[in-house]
UniProtKB/TrEMBL annotation:
Organism of origin: Octopus vulgaris (Common octopus)
UniProt topology in membrane: Multi-pass membrane protein
Protein name according to UniProt: Gamma-aminobutyric acid receptor alpha-like isoform X1
Pfam families for this protein: Neur_chan_LBD, Neur_chan_memb
Segments forming domain Neurotransmitter-gated ion-channel transmembrane: 179-282
InterPro entries: GABAA/Glycine_rcpt, GABAAa_rcpt, Neur_chan_lig-bd, Neur_chan_lig-bd_sf, Neur_channel, Neuro-gated_channel_TM_sf, Neuro_actylchol_rec, Neurotrans-gated_channel_TM
Coiled coil: none
Recorded superkingdom: Eukaryota
Compartments in which it is found: Postsynaptic cell membrane
Length: 373
């Protein structure tokens, strides 16, 4: 049995299809002969059920090296026919939990033209009529099967239908190794930017863009093997959240760069005011006194500017949104004298917020989808 493909919602199997029916016209009475073994050519000369598979897409009978048909006929008119077939049937799947989903594939068979007035199909051995001996599938594991029968009303007549349902559970090993684990590593790689110096803009931006492109490439590869369903799968949710975290890490650096990165500040109105001459002669002591006074004035001015541009977080966020250039220049120039290569407070917070929130998301994600299997 297998494979089960999502792209065209189908599955295939190879089976031995056995039918038994009675035709009293073929009964015979010969001494010492109770059963005849006949070749497949005999089937062309007798009546046989016009059985077909209702949800079949492409099926064929094996003919190598000869037609794989076995026919027996008993003296009471009982005919037993066995055929070796390969069937490809439709298997509609709901992929909302993909790749932690389950698939139920049905196979229905019945008469093409005879109603229940002429033919009634029944399972010869009840629930033991279908046996699965060789299940070789890479992505799915078969959990069981269920047989049944019902009647179908169409063209103003009732038709006897036999059905069997196969229950599959998808294996996660392939997806953990090929999708989930690489995504975890890429997201963790984007967090390295929180430890990179905020002045290394090329390194942090390049790291963020590279991780985003890597996740986008993984997402495109995964979606190539899926049909274009109108809803998000579990894997789509995971990939999109990883993309959000990587994009947030890049946006976080934009905030660090805007609020805390040291810039040139506003140009001084009089460059000569910043130059202070300290003469060594005692005759110019009044100049030193003037310098001390000027230092006091500059210190007071710095405190006033710091108070002007410090403000609350809401005020800083509003100036960031409105793009207040004077606010940024004023904040940068006041911070030039009091800050060197210290770590941004935003980076310090991000080092804890990003891993903790991502861990909470994964805990909820795996609990929701694994417990619902």
């Amino acid at each position: 049995m297998g494979p089960v493909t999502e792209i065209d919602m189908s599955y295939s199997m190879q089976l031995y299809y056995r039918q038994v029916w009675y035709d009293k016209r073929l009964a015979f009475n010969l001494e010492n002969i109770t059963e005849l073994q006949l070749n497949n050519k005999f089937l062309h000369n007798i009546w046989k059920p016009d059985t077909y598979f209702l949800n079949g897409k492409k099926s064929y009978q094996h003919d190598i090296t000869v037609p794989n048909i076995f026919l027996r006929m008993r003296k009471d008119g009982r005919l037993y026919v066995s055929r070796r077939l390969t069937i490809r049937a439709r298997c509609p799947m709901i992929l909302r939990k993909y790749p932690m989903d389950e698939a139920i594939c049905h196979l229905s068979l019945g008469s093409f033209g005879y109603s229940t007035d002429d033919i009634i199909y029944i399972w010869a051995h009840g629930s033991n009529s279908v046996e699965v001996t060789d299940v070789t599938m890479t992505q799915f594991e078969m959990r069981g099967l269920k047989v049944g029968n019902h009647t179908l009303y169409k063209n103003q007549a009732y038709y006897s239908i036999l059905g069997v349902s196969f229950y599959f559970t998808r294996n996660l090993g392939f997806f953990i190794l090929q999708t989930y684990l690489p995504c975890y590593l890429i997201v963790a790689l984007s967090w390295i930017s929180f430890w990179i110096n905020r002045d290394a803009a090329p390194a942090r931006v390049l790291l963020g863009v590279t991780t985003i492109l890597s996740l986008a490439a993984i997402g495109m590869t995964v979606r190539e093997g899926l049909p274009r369903v109108p809803y998000a799968t579990a894997l789509d949710i995971f990939l999109n959240m990883c993309l959000v975290y990587n994009l947030s890490a890049l946006i976080e650096y934009a905030g660090v760069n805007y609020f805390t990165k040291t810039g040139p500040g506003s140009p001084p109105e009089n460059e000569e005011d910043e130059k202070v001459l300290l003469p060594l002669s005692e005759s110019n002591t009044h100049t030193i006194e003037n310098v001390d006074a000027q230092h006091i004035v500059e210190s007071c001015t710095t405190k006033i500017q710091r108070k002007k541009y410090s403000g609350s977080c809401a005020n800083a966020f509003w100036n960031c949104l409105t793009g207040n250039t004077s606010y940024r220049y004023g904040k940068n120039s006041t911070m030039d004298k009091e800050r060197g290569l210290s770590v941004s407070r935003i980076d310090k917070v991000a080092r804890y917020v990003f891993p903790i929130s991502f861990g909470i998301f994964n805990s909820i994600y795996w609990c929701v989808y694994l417990l619902s299997r």
